[in-house]
């Protein structure tokens, strides 16, 4: 029997009032017919989204800083995306691999143009997890090697290989063994929670040292097909590696003929102030995995590698019935066009650093706010108990209060102790100002207001 406390794993936040009759009707049907494994952050029953707002069944509007988990980068129902979907749906909805189709080819060309370095060969899939699977298959096939190295705290998805590569929480992977392997886990340079809290360079050095030891003591490099890593950990807590870490990682991978896969599923598409977060590190991975923000909310993902690599993969070794659906591709082309025309990378950089500065000032003198960090509009606020350990109750308290004030924010981190802000990149200055005001009001916690809990380490 699973223990009850293990079933309740997420910080569930709800508007602190009884749902309306209309909402309750759907919540009852949900309880009756939806597989309970599908967890939701709130009991909002959504029916509409416009720009930065999501509307519930009673037409109450919530300022949405969750963006459907970093997906709605242009906000909800951006007119350019809606019309691209409508236009495409009237022409061709599906063909799969029975034919070529124009939208797939146009999107592949566009992705090749905007991807770093020589990444110019595109395979389209439906979800982040599926693209991760494809990337790993390619790496294994090309190298003929079995093992994969992942990094502690990572999140790569929920399918069997992608969950085996996920170490952000035991909760996602326990009771599923045997998981695919061989997979070897190296430390991720999470400076704030390391013993090198005030020395990022030492944290990076130590993580790289541990990785070299892994390749020396545990698995021979000649057996390693790939390393897979997020440029900024998402689910793991919005953790940014110290400067220089990626350059050395690139060197280690290259020196052993190991494919470097970068998972940009959460960090990609202008969110961090560049089209892809790895561009901040000035390295080029061998394979890049993208999803979420790519298509204005339509299900689409991709893995992108250099032609020299993919040319060695024989036709039909990989495939997908729905991957690269024409309607999703049309939505992606419109989304990327808007991102480029409106220079949303620059917008994310500018607004992100303004919000970051503001929240860092707010955090000063408040011991329970451990760290405010971020890049562009990917911002994390980490909360501490009085003893400096991660605090999930404070996070829950803040999220709950925000929701009471019609602001939707989500959390992440191994203890659910980090609030992550991932607003639409199109959020207006006035909306951002309003969001910060609410957030600050809700983060202004008086002594004794939150009861701390013990959590397992
Ligand atoms: C970095 C990263 N990789 C992979 C995934 C899995 O994507 P999906 O849920 O679309 O399968 C996620 C999802 O949150 C993610 O954040």
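Q: What amino acid sequence fits the structure above?
A:
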């Amino acid at each position: 029997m699973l223990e009850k406390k293990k079933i309740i794993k997420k910080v569930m936040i709800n508007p602190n009032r009884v749902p309306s009759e209309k909402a309750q009707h759907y919540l009852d049907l949900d309880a009756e017919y939806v597989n309970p494994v599908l967890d939701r952050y709130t009991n909002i029953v959504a029916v509409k989204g416009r720009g930065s707002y999501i509307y519930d069944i009673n037409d109450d509007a919530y300022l949405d800083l969750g963006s459907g988990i970093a997906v709605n980068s242009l906000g909800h129902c951006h007119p350019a995306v809606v019309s691209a979907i409508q236009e495409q749906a009237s022409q061709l909805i599906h063909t799969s691999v029975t034919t070529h189709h124009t939208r797939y080819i146009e999107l592949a060309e566009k992705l090749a143009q905007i991807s770093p370095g020589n990444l110019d060969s595109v395979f389209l899939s439906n979800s982040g997890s599926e693209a991760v699977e494809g990337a790993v298959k390619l790496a294994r096939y090309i190298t003929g090697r079995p093992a994969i190295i992942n990094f502690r705290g990572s999140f790569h998805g929920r399918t069997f290989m992608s969950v085996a590569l996920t170490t952000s929480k035991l909760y996602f992977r326990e009771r599923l063994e045997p998981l695919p392997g061989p997979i070897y886990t190296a430390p991720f340079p999470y400076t704030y929670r390391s013993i090198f809290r005030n020395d990022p360079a030492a944290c990076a050095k130590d993580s790289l040292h541990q990785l070299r030891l892994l390749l020396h003591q545990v698995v021979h490099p000649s057996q390693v097909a790939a390393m897979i890593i997020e440029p900024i950990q998402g689910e793991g807590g919005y953790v940014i590696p110290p400067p220089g870490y990626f350059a050395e990682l690139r060197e280690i991978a290259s020196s052993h003929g190991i494919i470097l896969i970068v998972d940009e599923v959460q960090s990609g598409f202008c969110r961090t102030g560049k089209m892809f977060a790895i561009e901040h590190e000035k390295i080029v991975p061998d394979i890049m995995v993208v999803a979420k923000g790519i298509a204005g909310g339509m299900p689409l993902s991709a893995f992108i590698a250099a032609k020299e690599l993919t040319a060695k993969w024989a036709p039909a070794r990989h495939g997908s019935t729905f991957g690269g659906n024409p309607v999703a591709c049309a939505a992606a082309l419109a989304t990327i066009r808007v991102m480029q025309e409106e220079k949303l990378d620059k917008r994310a950089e500018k607004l992100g650093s303004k919000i970051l500065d503001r929240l860092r000032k707010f955090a000063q003198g408040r011991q329970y706010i451990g760290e405010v960090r971020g890049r562009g509009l990917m911002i994390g606020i980490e909360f501490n108990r009085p003893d400096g350990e991660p605090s999930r109750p404070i996070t829950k308290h803040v999220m709950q209060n925000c929701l009471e004030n019609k602001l939707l924010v989500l959390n992440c981190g191994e203890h659910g102790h980090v609030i992550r802000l991932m607003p639409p990149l199109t959020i207006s200055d006035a909306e951002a100002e309003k969001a910060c005001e609410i957030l600050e009001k809700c983060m202004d916690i008086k002594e004794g207001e939150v009861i701390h809990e013990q959590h397992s380490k």
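Q: And what stands out in the fold?
A: The pocket of pyridoxal-5'-phosphate is lined by residues 69, 127-129, 132, 155-157, 230, 234-235, 263, 265-266, 291 (CB under 6 Å).
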